[in-house]
From TrEMBL:
It comes from Pseudonocardia thermophila. CDD domains: SDR_e (cd08946). This is Nucleoside-diphosphate-sugar epimerase. Residues 3-239 form the NAD-dependent epimerase/dehydratase domain. Pfam families: Epimerase. SUPFAM superfamilies: NAD(P)-binding Rossmann-fold domains (SSF51735).
Amino acid sequence: MTVLVTGGVGYIGIGTCAQLLESGRTVRVLDSLLHGQRDLADQLAASGVEVQIGDIRDPVARAKALAGVDEVVHLAAIVGDPACARDPRHSNSVNVEGATAMVRDAAAAGVQRFVFASTCSNYGRMADPTVPITEEGELRPVSLYAEQKVGIEELLLAGGHGMVATCLRFATIYGVAPRMRFDLTVNEFTRDLWAGRHLEVFGEQFWRPYVHVRDAGRAVRAVLDHPADVVGGQVFNVGNSAENYRKLDIVEAVTKAVPNASVSFVARDEDPRDYKVSFDKIARVLGFTTTATVPDGIAEVIEALEAGRFADPFSPIHRN
């Protein structure tokens, strides 16, 4: 099987490519290298991945990338609420128009299976965040990013395109990866407190689920390794039901590993998301279990920082 991973040189993408190579697939990547990851693209190519540099919005790039492809994993996006809010027109052109064109062209090219990277942010602010929500729960997106993801989910799940489509709602990602991000809660809190910076935290009582970046890639592989009649037309929350945390819990876990940390809690209203998520379905249907916990990720990030793996962990290259 030949699989195309859009955004394959990204934070989740590189590990996903490694998983799919390990499964015996031929792996192709389409990535615009928005964050300047030319060295990582070269490393992927050296590992046996066919790397095509291009934009998913470019019809010529899409046609070339989809030629002879059996499966598509669509990760490419302007990722995250702040990045989408900063330039709504650009994020719409990538996350909606580009994704829609990819679905259309993949179907026309005879692609059999399509895996779409979505987000648990689709659940927004739950009426009762203490009760874990399942894939059948109400979607209440409160950000442009989540609204865009919901729209593409609806397109895929409506059918009519002839592909076996699966939507993966990822929990908030954390952990060390080749294309490192320090604008994600666990990674950011750990970096800041490790560096001796004062950390201001808002919404400390709000719930979120978390999943390691490595487990995100494993989940993609699990979907593609299962029969079409098991995963077709399905949505899976990706994470572990035991890995729902409040920001307060994250801070407490980091401060256990970082002595003398300086933290204060402030009141703000700009991020109303509050949701606790059930991951029972992916465990029951796919037998998928995560391999890392948030404390594991905190220890991993500290170890990488101590080892000097990042020339400047505060560099803009580590943010979306």
